[in-house]
Amino acid sequence: MTADVYTMPWVGRIDPDNEVDIVSVNVPGPASKITAKTASPDGGLCFPGADSFIQILKSDGTTLAENDDNGTYCSTAVATGLPAGKVYIRVRAQPTLDISNIYIFPYSLIVTIE
User: Fold this and answer.
1) Which of 31-35, 73-77, 83-87 has the lowest mean pLDDT?
2) Structural domain boundaries of the chain?
3) How far apart are CA 11 and CA 100, in angstroms?
4) Chain centroid, CA 13 distance in Å
């Protein structure tokens, strides 16, 4: 899987609306918890045009966790019990609407590992 290495702060942009951003993160294991969330570029709340969909993936592309909104237009995914190794975080516009160019937006990605 091709991905950029996550660094903080991470600010991305979904443009065009079918773009997918993928970043890699190393987790220490043996039972790590990773939380990945989107926010506005300044770290605040997302706005209606920034409706993100986030996934945490294994290296083979298997979904560990995903979220299409956490009560706002931002998204938060949490995966637990992870062994040491690399996981991937995929961010894109929410997939349920088929309206071209409505979901073009900047975002920040915040990742925490415990």
Assistant:
1) 73-77
2) 4-113
3) 23
4) 12
Rounded Cα distance, 109 and 111, in Å: 7
Give the class (CATH, top level) of 4-113: mainly beta
Contact between residue 75 and residue 14 where contact means Cβ atoms under 8 Å apart: no
Distance CA 105, CA 15 (A): 7
Percent of the chain whose predicted confidence (pLDDT) is above 90: 57
pTM over 0.85: yes
- 3-state SS assignment for residue 90: strand
Longest CA pairwise span in the chain (Å) = 42
Whole-angstrom Cα distance, residue 108 to residue 31?
26
Q: How far is CA 20 from CA 8, 17, 67, in A?
A: 19, 9, 15
